[in-house]
């Protein structure tokens, strides 16, 4: 492999290669006209069963489990096909990422995009899975924002170079595997003295973190990534992962059916 010579000014290459090379562009905004279906349920959720996407479906199912009368229509945004760049979806999330939804329970629709924002919106709207006590709420926010900041190093960093990149680059894989291991070790140490990530209560922080790191601990993201990272050595993380995986709402959130948009 020849050494990459940095140009003075970067230009978009004709072809990036890899699983996502044909979709990624250096510009934002919609790329084609699109009409998304809209149902009658309280919430219209446009998503996919990715680590970010399952946060929303698990949250809805957890609310139902807690007795909240809430309904949602779930539509499949096939990101591999570029559905996220259609005009209707971009109108909900200008960043073109799933999940995105709107709340149609009020007089005006409210758009909500980015998975942690959806979790927090629903938790606050229904007063569930987030403490009322200010200090305890702040601890939940600490971990919710930790996941928001940490996961790109796991997914866009380790996951990309380990699984999606068109060629295996040793330096990149080592760099991000080291960071992934550091994050796993952090969670394992935190969970040594706590039932859940913020203490004894299950919250939206657990949903956010489990959807990435719990699934990785189960070796259910990127083929053999869990083996590569030796996730079984993190005993406290494994205990927490298994405990959450047994929750009925989590099981339903993973098994929900997506409606086609076209």
Helix content: 40-55%
Question: At the third CATH level, what is the topology name of the domain at 134-247?
Answer: Glutathione S-transferase Yfyf (Class Pi), Chain A, domain 2
Low-confidence stretches: none
The gyration radius over C-alpha positions equals: 19 Å
Strand order of the largest sheet: 2-1-3-4
Structural class determined from secondary elements: alpha+beta
Distance between the termini: 42 Å
Number of strands: 4
By CATH reckoning, the class of the domain at 134-247 would read Mainly Alpha
CATH architecture call of the domain at 134-247: Up-down Bundle
What is the typical, i.e. mean, pLDDT?
Answer: 96
Q: Helix and strand succession? A: EHEHEEHHHHHHH
Number of helical segments with 4 or more residues = 9
Report the sheet with the most strands, covering strand number, pairing sense and barrel closure. 4 strands, mixed
Structural overview:
The chain is α+β, with helices and mostly antiparallel strands and 262 residues long. It has a domain at 134-247: Glutathione S-transferase Yfyf (Class Pi), Chain A, domain 2 (Up-down Bundle), CATH 1.20.1050. Helix content is 46%, strand content 7%. Strands 2-1-3-4 form a 4-stranded mixed beta sheet, with helices on one face. A hairpin with a 6-residue loop joins strand 3 (100-103) and strand 4 (110-113). Helix 4 (134-164) runs parallel beside helix 6 (204-217) and helix 6 (204-217) crosses helix 8. It is globular, with a radius of gyration of 19 Å. The protein starts with 42 loop residues before the first strand and ends in a 7-residue tail after the last helix. 33% of the residues are buried. The model has no long low-confidence stretch (mean pLDDT 96). Residues 40-130 form the GST N-terminal domain. Residues 133-262 form the GST C-terminal domain. It comes from Streptococcus henryi. This is GST-like protein. Pfam families: GST_C_2 (PF13410), GST_N_2 (PF13409).
């Amino acid at each position: 492999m020849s050494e990459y010579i940095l140009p003075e000014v970067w230009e978009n290459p004709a072809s990036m290669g890899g699983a996502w090379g044909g979709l990624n562009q250096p510009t934002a905004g919609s790329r084609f006209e699109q009409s998304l279906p809209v149902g009658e349920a309280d919430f219209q959720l446009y998503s996919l069963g990715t680590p970010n996407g399952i946060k929303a479906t698990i949250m809805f199912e957890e609310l139902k489990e807690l007795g909240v009368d809430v309904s949602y229509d779930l539509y499949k945004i096939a990101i591999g096909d570029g559905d996220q760049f259609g005009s209707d979806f971009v109108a909900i999330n200008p960043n073109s990422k799933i999940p995105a939804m709107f709340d149609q329970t009020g007089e005006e629709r409210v758009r909500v995009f980015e998975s942690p924002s959806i979790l927090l919106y629903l938790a606050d709207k229904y007063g569930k899975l987030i403490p009322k006590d200010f200090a305890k709420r702040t601890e939940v926010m600490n971990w919710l924002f930790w996941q928001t900041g940490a996961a790109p190093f796991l997914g866009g960093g380790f996951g990309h170079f380990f699984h999606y990149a068109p060629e295996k680059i040793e330096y990149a894989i080592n760099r991000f595997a080291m960071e992934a291991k550091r994050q796993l070790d952090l969670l394992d140490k935190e969970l040594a003295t706590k039932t859940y990530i913020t203490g004894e209560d299950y919250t939206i922080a657990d949903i956010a973190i489990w959807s990435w790191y719990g699934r990785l601990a189960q070796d259910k993201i990127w083929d053999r990534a869990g083996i590569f990272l030796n996730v079984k050595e993190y005993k406290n993380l494994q205990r927490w992962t298994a405990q959450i995986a047994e929750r009925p709402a989590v099981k339903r959130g993973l098994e929900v059916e997506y409606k086609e948009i076209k």
